[in-house]
Design goal:
Elements: E1 4-12, E2 18-27, E3 29-30, E4 36-43, E5 69-76, H1 87-93, E6 117-125, E7 127-131, E8 136-140, E9 144-148, E10 153-155, E11 162-170
Antiparallel strand pairs: 1-2, 3-4, 4-5, 5-11, 6-9, 6-11, 7-8, 7-10
Amino acid sequence: MTGTVRRIVTGHDKGGTAVILKDGQVNTIERSGGIGSATLWITDEAPADMSSDQDRVRAIGVPPPPNGSILRIVDFPPVSGEIKVDNETMIKEMGISAKAEGHGKHINHPFMHRTKSIDYAIVLNGEIDMLLDDSEVHLKAGDIMVQQGTNHAWVNNSGKVCRICFVLIDGIEPPVLKGRGGGH
């Protein structure tokens, strides 16, 4: 599944006037399970450096850089039949250390993973289920989830593509998980 996302980046000219620095299409790339992903911006520090006019996008896994953040759009295709990806392969592709992914009590789905980050997930269109260790929640267009480093899997049982905007911000491991492995 491939597509594009329009990305507009603002900044300042040499005189301090607010200007459009970039306005164009960003291609999504296909990952395991047909998931399409487009990274739109990355920061490597907090507070974020807003003085550069350079594009901050580069090849990176799912977790944000230490002390940084990622803005990404993800298209989840509908799941049907047997999922032909194993959890270890998916974790590796996502750039999460297999030794340190810090899974919770269960790996109850091949898409289960965790990052050491606060994630803001905004469902733009479609519907999707988010599985946790012992529960799940159904989200639809307009729903917003704040996820605090939990073990989870996104599973689209709706029959149509679901598009989610994610902002991931590097976080501090919750004390209850210390010693169980970090998210990245």
